[in-house]
Design a protein that fits this description.
heterodimer, A: 14 helices, B: 451 residues, alpha/beta, six-stranded mixed β-sheet, 14% strand
Chain lengths: 309, 451
């Protein structure tokens, strides 16, 4: 064997090894998983991660975006009466809307679940209509229902002998109106999720409890609710995130009025950032949502982990 | 570079000369240039057919000047026009020429090509622009944008003359006839906010209240701004002093407490179209609005439209003011064909082109150059004949965009943080003491100075 042939073999082995190793890697399940997730990861990086970090960067600039001001924008916001009004409204809006969506969604799911299979399909379809309609469009429909001067709802109230209500022109009624639309829109999401959860509960549990003489409220309390606990937690978390970031309903119905009393983080950030050109302050307003959501997510997810451990 | 600038100046001067003369002689002025491209973001006009006329004019100019022009008509509904400008400003790319809403020249001036050469040549030819247009477009010693007649509008009183004459004994047609020479100074001087309030009580009693919003919309600013101004109240002065805490502010708020008793109670939830609907429905006897309400009434309720007369606002102790919302045209600094863009805008601003555009908009577009107020459309459009004659300012009114005369950076916040409607609404709807509401406004204004 010549020294040259040894060198040639070594070179050939070197050429073959990376090719084989690449093939091996491609064959491994994790490599395929990464490859298949890559488009999604790129999308998330481009459309979620980048805007998130960019908004953090923006929130730390001065109004003209010419100087770094650290947390000054956040500190400034805490001194503004209007901002605290926005915080209060955002919490009120989210708390009441999520609570009612969960209660109504659960009730609807239980009622639909008791219907015969054929009837279930029809009612399930009808109940989903608010959720599948584009929100901006349905908000416009609601605007016509509430419209200050020619409200269809007021017309009905007058016909049945009641007094018309200032749906959008009084702060209390306006808050009620926008929360109601959010409940109307979001309830089907809860309903369909809970319905799926109800279907997964073994019928034997209900049958054996019935034999043991459990009443309907007892079955609800000791079987249904514990079995749906994690689903309820996840839907509440998901809905809290989406509801706190509401924009369309308030923008279309009240534009934050009357007297700025129905602004939430999203609409107030828009007003500051786009209308008055103070993008850093607008970014700071929208970032106030982040710690609130992070804390909520932490506790809810911890609860789920503990209950499944 | 210098050679290129000289060449640009030469071509620009040629256009200036051509703009006035050639438009009438050959239809469209021609400037020798290599084939170039331009993109133009234009406001999507609500008047049917107005876009087509403008597109035709722009396209013809492009053909004559070897410029391939792409036009996008962008609606202002849902703030799309503002959002487009904001997105292009941040991205540093987009159209060459963009239509900018009232306060956008202030927000985006760092990335806009100065338009002083175009504006000054127009001033030389036609005289000064209106003061409010100058305020919004001329900043930091330069014309950052050019006043755009398309979309610009003012807010006169739009009165049902039959109702006011019968129920309040006020004949607005006689007071503000379709000929400025026939105006009776005594009668016009008597037309003040007190007389307006007395009339408002009577039309309310007759079942036809006047309606003006006090909410988060531009219409609210465009009648409250003039009302406060006519009492000498400007939230921030030109030196940056907060001047809202004064007796006159309290007087106006007290006045509004009284006036709003005779308006629909839902004005606090109105949007920009609500007052139009109020007038068109036949329930309302007056609104403060551009002639768009009349145009829709002409289509849907001709009997109402035939009784609508546009005229001057009431006078206050410190003069007579009317709201205005001018639009602007800006050329982004990244445009590769700035000179062609300027040539086109200059051409569009000439009297000959303006004449066609004002006709196409049925008189809605309000020229920033008073030299064009003698367009016959405002006298001819009907019914009633002469009902829009007073849409251009004919008498002693001054135009104001709420926020003037404060520095534009403060003005935009006064306007879009809805300072005036919120302050007033806190009292007239929320029950807050006037002094407390004014204190709140002063505190808000202090925060607008944040750098």
């Amino acid at each position: 064997m010549s020294p040259n042939s040894t060198a040639v073999d070594a070179a050939a082995t070197a050429r073959v090894r990376p090719a084989r190793s690449l093939r091996l890697r491609l064959h491994s399940r994790s490599a395929i998983a990464v490859l298949m997730c890559l488009p999604l990861l790129i999308l998330i990086a481009g459309l979620v991660a980048y805007p998130f970090f960019y908004s953090i960067y923006l929130s730390m600039l001065n109004k003209r975006e010419t100087a770094f001001v650290g947390l000054a924008n956040f500190a400034y916001l805490t001194t503004r009466e209007t901002f605290w009004m926005v915080v209060r409204m955002s919490f009120l809006f989210t708390f009441l809307a999520v609570l009612w969506k969960a209660v109504l969604g659960f009730t609807l799911a239980v009622v639909i679940n008791t219907l015969p299979q054929r009837g279930q399909r029809v009612w399930r379809g009808i109940s989903l209509v608010p959720w599948v309609m584009p929100l901006a469009l349905s908000s416009l429909g609601w605007w016509w229902i509430y419209e200050p001067t020619h409200s269809a709802l007021n017309w009905i109230l007058v016909v049945v002998g009641l007094s018309p209500k200032p749906w959008l022109s009084d702060p209390v009624w306006a808050k009620f109106s926008v929360i109601l639309v959010n409940i109307w829109y979001g309830t089907p999401f809860f309903m369909i999720t809970y319905l799926a959860g109800l279907k997964s509960i073994p019928v034997e549990l209900y049958e054996s409890s019935a034999i043991d003489g459990a009443s309907a409220p007892q079955r609800l309390r000791y079987i249904t609710l514990p079995m749906l606990k994690n689903i309820i937690a996840v839907t509440v978390l998901f809905s809290t995130i989406v509801t706190l970031a509401t924009f369309d309903i308030i923008r279309v119905l009240t534009r934050g009025g009357p007297r700025q009393t129905t602004h939430v983080f999203g609409t107030y950030a828009f007003e500051l950032g786009i209308a008055t050109g103070d993008v850093p302050l607008g970014a700071a307003v929208s970032l106030f949502m982040f710690p609130i959501l992070a804390v909520s997510a932490f506790f809810i997810l911890r609860g789920i982990r503990q209950s499944t451990a | 570079m210098e050679q290129m600038e000289q060449s640009n100046r030469r071509s620009f001067l040629r256009t200036v000369t051509a703009g006035a003369a050639a438009a009438t002689l050959a239809g469209v002025p021609r400037v020798a240039r290599a084939q170039t491209k331009l993109t133009f973001g234009l406001w999507d006009h609500w008047v049917p057919g107005a876009n087509d006329v403008l597109k035709g004019i722009v396209t013809d100019w492009g053909k004559s000047n070897r410029v391939d022009i792409g036009i996008d008509f962008i609606t202002s509904i849902g703030n799309k026009l503002d959002l487009t400008a904001a997105a292009e400003y941040r991205a540093g790319s987009g159209h060459d020429i963009i239509t900018l809403g009232t306060w956008n020249p202030t927000l985006y001036k760092e990335k806009l090509e100065p338009m002083s050469d175009v504006a000054e040549s127009l001033i030389k030819q036609y005289g000064k622009f209106q003061e409010n247009a100058t305020y919004l477009n001329f900043q930091d010693g330069r014309w950052v944008t050019l006043p755009a007649p398309i979309g610009s509008h003012t807010y006169p009183l739009e009165t049902r003359m039959d109702i006011w004459k019968k129920s309040a004994g006020i004949d607005v047609q006689e007071m503000f006839p379709a000929d400025v020479k026939k105006r009776d100074k005594k009668k016009i001087d008597a037309w003040d906010w007190k007389m307006f309030l007395a009339g408002a009580k009577k039309v309310h009693a007759a079942g036809f209240p006047l309606g003006a919003s006090i909410a988060e919309n531009t219409d609210s600013n465009d009648w409250l701004g003039p009302l406060f101004a006519s009492h000498g109240v400007f939230p921030i002065d030109e030196k940056g002093n907060i001047t809202i805490e004064q007796d006159a502010t309290l007087q106006v708020i007290e006045y509004l407490k009284e006036l709003t008793k005779y308006m629909p109670r839902d004005i606090y939830g109105w949007d920009d179209a609500s007052n139009n609907r109020w007038l068109i429905s036949g329930k309302g006897s007056a609104i403060i609005n551009p002639p768009s309400a009349w145009t829709v009434a002409k289509r849907d309720q001709p009997a109402v439209a035939a009784q609508v007369w546009h005229h001057d606002m009431p006078r206050g102790p410190k003069g007579r003011w009317r709201g205005a919302l001018p639009f602007s045209w800006g050329v982004w600094s990244w445009s590769k064909n700035k000179q062609a863009a300027k040539d086109l805008l200059l051409y569009l601003s000439t009297r000959e082109v303006q004449w066609k555009l004002i006709t196409a908009s049925q008189g809605y577009d309000y020229p920033a150059l008073p030299a064009f107020f003698n367009h016959p459309i405002w006298q001819e459009i009907e019914p009633p004949k002469g009902g829009q004659y007073n849409y251009p300012v004919r008498g002693d009114e001054k135009l104001i965009v709420a926020g003037w005369p404060g520095k534009q950076e403060y003005g935009v916040q006064i306007y879009y943080k809805w300072l005036l409607p919120t302050m007033v609404g806190k009292v007239t709807s929320g029950g807050m003491a006037p002094k407390e509401a004014v204190k709140w406004a002063a505190k808000e204004l202090e925060s607008y100075k944040r750098g």
